[in-house]
Recover the amino acids of this structure.
């Protein structure tokens, strides 16, 4: 049983007493029962909760958990078969006394689901997309919304107006987030390299595009007057632009521990722009059950064992780990899990050896194949050397649209020697080069 989630709050109270600076980090730790699937997004700070209260979060499968006075409303049951994973949530604008009692959920295939008094104004669920949907943003009156895809394409519904997109334009990195201006007459898109694209009346206040970043940008949020925005990296580093104010980040590690850098997937501003929340998806207890991807007892055992290991590396030292000697250990982790599940594979430190073992003893599948739970995802361009076989993960879920979620050892973000076992995905294998920084060259079957 892993520890409960950490929704990290970075507050705005500045101490003016002698010798003091920014107020300490406030952390909301919520004890929860096991979730059906991992949290993948956070909504913008809307009015479905009181100022200072955590907002609802969404987890794969459609379930939403509310905090404070944010109620989890009737929506897609977690057991409902879905064609694609839920990737984003947006709250209906307004106050609890007016309209703010609902939210929209967006799936990677462009499907839109409504809860409470959120209106349905259309979706992309039946249309082929160049890239998966990554974010949803509502109009100010809640009578429309935009969807944005990874290729920068923007799709408008209801009273949302189209002001342009990056669809069809070459991008240095995929689009990962979106935010709308307060009057709904413009919006910003942010790419994984930190580049910001403004449309309509959205003003450009700067970006991290062209800067050397340790990890990719994963989300953005705009201030409520439209005069600025924040970008957050997967390692919890926060950059502010315009009138957005900095309140700290996880640059020094969780709780000031540089060995504990949890992966971050979302950011939401408080209603008064006096702080923000960073969402850590790997901090939740969850199960890989929707959809069930295990086709054999071995695959189910591999997924279950890998699930128990998701955590920060508990062994101190440069690349030291619980699965083998002090060296790069993604393959040590993967072969350890297979061995625990009864697969007679040696402990390998080189990912290419997993390929060659499967080639001789079981099966190797091409990157265009459909993997199942328990299969090893081999990243790179080939098995021959450490320069071509770069990394390995273990498939935990495969969704009907082909997206996969895997568990990876020696993954990050975190400093060398303190890397973690993390959840990666959902992502489409064909987009692995853009999403993960390396393509998939094969799958090894246990």
């Amino acid at each position: 049983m892993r520890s409960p989630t950490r929704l990290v709050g970075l507050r705005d109270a500045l101490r003016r007493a002698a010798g003091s600076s920014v107020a300490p980090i406030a952390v909301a730790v919520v004890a929860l029962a096991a979730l059906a699937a991992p949290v993948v997004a956070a909504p913008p700070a809307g009015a479905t909760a009181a100022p200072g209260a955590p907002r609802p979060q969404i987890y794969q499968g459609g379930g939403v958990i509310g905090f404070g006075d944010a109620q989890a409303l009737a929506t897609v049951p977690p057991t409902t078969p879905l064609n694609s994973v839920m990737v984003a949530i947006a709250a209906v604008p307004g106050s609890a006394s007016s309209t703010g009692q609902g939210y929209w959920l967006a799936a990677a295939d462009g499907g839109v689901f409504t809860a409470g008094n959120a209106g349905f104004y259309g979706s992309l669920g039946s249309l082929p997309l160049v890239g998966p949907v990554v974010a949803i943003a509502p109009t100010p009156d809640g009578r429309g919304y935009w969807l944005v895809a990874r290729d920068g394409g923007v799709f408008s519904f209801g009273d949302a107006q189209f002001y342009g997109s990056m669809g069809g334009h070459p991008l240095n990195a995929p689009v990962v987030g979106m935010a709308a201006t307060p009057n709904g007459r413009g919006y910003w898109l942010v790419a994984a390299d930190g580049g910001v694209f403004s449309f309509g009346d959205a003003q450009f206040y700067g970006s991290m595009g062209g800067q050397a970043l340790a990890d990719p940008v994963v989300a953005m949020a705009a201030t409520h007057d439209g005069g600025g925005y924040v970008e957050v990296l997967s390692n919890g580093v926060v950059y502010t632009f315009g009138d957005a104010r900095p309140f700290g980040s996880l640059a020094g590690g969780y709780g000031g521990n540089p060995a504990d850098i949890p992966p971050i997937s979302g950011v939401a501003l408080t209603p008064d722009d006096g702080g923000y929340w960073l969402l850590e998806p790997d901090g939740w207890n969850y199960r890989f059950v929707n959809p069930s991807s295990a086709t054999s007892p071995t695959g189910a055992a591999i997924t279950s064992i890998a699930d128990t290991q998701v955590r920060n590396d508990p062994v101190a030292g440069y690349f030291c780990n619980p699965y083998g000697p002090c060296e790069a250990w993604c393959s040590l982790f993967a072969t350890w899990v297979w061995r625990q599940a009864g697969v007679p594979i040696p402990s390998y430190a080189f990912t290419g050896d997993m390929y060659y073992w499967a080639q001789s003893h079981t099966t190797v599948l091409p990157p265009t194949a459909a993997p199942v739970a328990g299969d090893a995802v081999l990243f790179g361009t080939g098995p021959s050397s450490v320069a071509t076989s770069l990394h390995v993960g273990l498939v935990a879920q495969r969704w009907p649209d082909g997206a996969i979620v895997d568990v990876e050892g020696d993954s990050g973000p975190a400093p060398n020697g303190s890397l973690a076992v993390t959840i990666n995905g959902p992502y489409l294998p064909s987009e692995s080069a853009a999403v993960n920084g390396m393509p998939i060259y094969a799958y090894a079957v246990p």
Observations:
- DSSP finds four helices and 26 strands in the chain.
- Helices lie at 297-308, 330-340, 351-361, 432-436.
- Residues 1-5, 11-33, 95-99 have pLDDT under 50 and may be disordered.
